[in-house]
Specification:
Length: about 290
């Protein structure tokens, strides 16, 4: 099974084992229901006996398991190859394959359940840290109230902003009452080496000027928000917490039974998860 987030593109690879006649792809909910894609041959790529299709998952796609089916004929005989995709509302940080290895699950019967645990764990980490670690697929605008978000030092005025993971196409404007003036050329993203270090930009320096902080003034920033890459600690924490949630079914009322160790009460907070995400928790949330 592959995991994908609503609004993302996911590459599907079908190993058909033969060259197919009239191949098509259909994507439908695994539990049954109308197809969300196809059957269609549009966008279907082929390399020998391997077929590829990029599913542009709708931003409004419901969280569920979907089955993508490549269908065609070979020598007059029907051929079908399935790939299962679990769509989450938002991206997850750890992979389903690694989680299955950690919980020693080799079948596919519990893939949807495990994927749901990954999604729940990822959102819990986001909430605890006060930020999220996935990057927007495209630039979008946010309006920021600069009041109490401007720090002035010998370098100038720094506007503290939510995490920015890609500054290509960055647009910064100031204004009030819906009238905006572009100041992008007068702005420097900081830390200047953040993206090279796979860290987010967290402030904007107004070069040779200041940020307006009076009544009604706002700053509109258009960019790709988030992190440029998932931090290793967050990836590991996502897997550990998802595994803990999956095994919760074996620990009713917070008690885990073992024939070797007897009854063990689980702690409320996993210390390993906390230590892994602690460096990424925004100040004031720890």
């Amino acid at each position: 099974m592959i995991t994908a987030a609503a609004g993302e593109n996911v590459a599907l690879v079908f190993a058909a084992g033969a060259v197919l006649t009239d191949p098509t792809v259909t994507i439908a909910p695994t539990a049954g229901g109308s197809a969300v894609i196809g059957p269609t041959a549009d966008g279907l790529g082929v390399d020998g006996t391997t077929y590829t299709f990029v599913w542009q998952v709708s931003a409004s796609q419901a969280q569920a398991s979907y089955t993508a089916t490549l269908a065609g004929t070979s020598g007059g005989d029907p051929v079908e190859v399935d790939v299962t995709v679990f769509v989450t509302l938002l991206p997850v940080y750890a992979t389903l394959a690694n989680l299955k290895a950690d919980v020693t699950v080799t079948d596919t019967d519990r893939d949807a359940r495990l994927a749901a645990k990954l999604a729940a764990a990822a959102r819990s980490i986001d909430k605890t840290c006060g930020r999220r670690f996935y990057l927007d697929p495209a630039a979008n605008a946010r309006i920021i109230n600069p009041s109490r978000r401007v720090v002035v030092d010998e370098d100038g005025a720094h506007l503290l902003v939510p995490d920015i993971g890609d500054t290509d196409g960055l647009v910064v404007e100031v204004g009030r009452s819906g009238s905006w003036t572009a100041v992008t050329a007068q702005v420097e993203a900081e830390p200047t080496d953040a993206l090279d270090m796979l860290q987010p930009v967290t402030s904007l320096l107004r070069i040779g000027g200041s940020w307006p902080t009076g009544s009604g003034w706002r700053v509109r920033v258009t960019t790709r928000w988030g992190w440029p890459a998932y931090p290793d600690g967050v990836v590991e924490a996502n897997g550990i917490l998802a595994m803990r949630l999956f095994k919760r079914k074996d620990s009713p009322e917070g008690v885990l039974g073992s024939s070797e160790w007897g009854v063990i009460r689980l702690s409320r907070t996993d210390p390993d998860v906390y230590e892994l995400i602690k460096p990424y928790i925004l100040p004031g949330l720890a």
